[in-house]
Amino acid sequence: MQVPQIDLKREYKFIEEEVKKATEKVMASGYYILGPHVKELEEKIASYTGVRFAKGVASGSDALLLTQMAIGIKKNEGVITTPFTFFATASAVYRRGGIPVFVDIDEKTYNISPDSIEKVLEGGRKEKDGTIIKHKGKEIKIRAIIPVHLFGQSAEMDRIMDIAKRYNLMVVEDAAQSIGAEFDGKRVASFGDFGIYSFFPTKNLGTYGDGGMVLTDDEDLDQMINILRVHGASRKYHHTYVGINSRLDEIHAAILLVKFKYLEEFTKKRAERAAYYMKLFKDFDLSEFVELPYVHKKATRHVWNQFVIKVEKRDELKSFLKEKGIGTNIYYPMGLHMQKCFEDLGYKEGELPITDKVSRKVLALPMHPFLRDDEQEYVVEKIREFYNGV
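^ thats the sequence. predicted structure below, dont judge the formating
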């Protein structure tokens, strides 16, 4: 049996005719950039999230970068974030000349640890737009926190928002993997000053290419994003800021509007697939070898972008499953603090021990709304076969 980790072909087959009609309409219109489809999508995503404003941009990576531009992160200013995430989270800070200040993660949820955030800030000197701390031998001003809602589960936003308030920090929620997730009944991307989504094809709401969105309740911040995404122009050929070219295309917005109609249905199916994995692993009695995903008690809605287990002999298991036709992935094989391009930040292996430990053990299993019972049964059966032979 062949079981890919993500199967976008099945999803496309399900919505093929609707997508073709929507894209043909755009092509015939002659209106391709920031048109009515983008506006409609922005309004629907803002309402779905529970915020006032949303702006479509070219990618989730650009969404993060634009928030750092709007906040005004300057050279040698710090932003606290997690090392256990996709590269774009930290690179958005670094590209502005800022300093990503990595803190460790929670060993159960893999999300940023509020205790680790607090530890970095304790004793800092508060200013109206941040807090001065001693970091790697020099004083820097911490301006913001970027929590990531990883794999479809919200970070602990009650504690993070409390810390941000006490230390005068802004908050940018990286919800690239977690559209529709909730913490204590409130949607992610609606807690902080900004929230961002990615519409990369593998996301729960993904287009056939790149796309992203920036969300906020603050009208001034929303207008700043609106200007920055069009080269910093407040009106055509009149540039208030040096912005970037980052606009969501009409054709991607049209595709996303089709897929948005099914987001809740697909999210429910993901939860059903996750629940079936949980049952299978218990039925197969693999608790000695496999640590299942942990759902925080206040994460009132997990949207299961990935189903990530923690195992011993991870690399050997991955190779074994590949031989059996089962697709898996490693999110993430090392923390960002250990990436070569960030060597100048001065982190060493062992400095963030939980991240180092988790990155050696995590493995993402097949997960998508069209996954079948028999495919999941095959996956778990082969995992049992591997460990029975160890």
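The first strand starts at residue 53 and ends at 57.
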